[in-house]
């Protein structure tokens, strides 16, 4: 189930975010987390099954009615089980009127999800 990020989940969210190639540096990671916490047009979601095992970060682009997936990460022990695809599908179900697009980092994965 896709749930909205709350500050109480900060450590697990940072751990999942650190799996993204551009978020390895601690200062960069902290800056990214701060952006999700303070900027209105950014939203972080967590994927919860028994535990929180995935993360999805989006940028709402109001002028074009799109959601840009900026970050997507799954706990390594839960990869190759369709978790990432379920996260993207759940996002599409939450925002059926929005077009979901990817950035350069997430495009290779999002294209495999076949959400169009």
TrEMBL record:
It holds the Pfam family Acetyltransf_1. GO terms for molecular function: acyltransferase activity, transferring groups other than amino-acyl groups. The keyword Heme does not apply. Residues 3-116 form the N-acetyltransferase domain. Keywords: Acyltransferase, Transferase. This is GNAT family N-acetyltransferase. It comes from Neobacillus thermocopriae. The lineage of its organism: Bacteria, Bacillati, Bacillota, Bacilli, Bacillales.
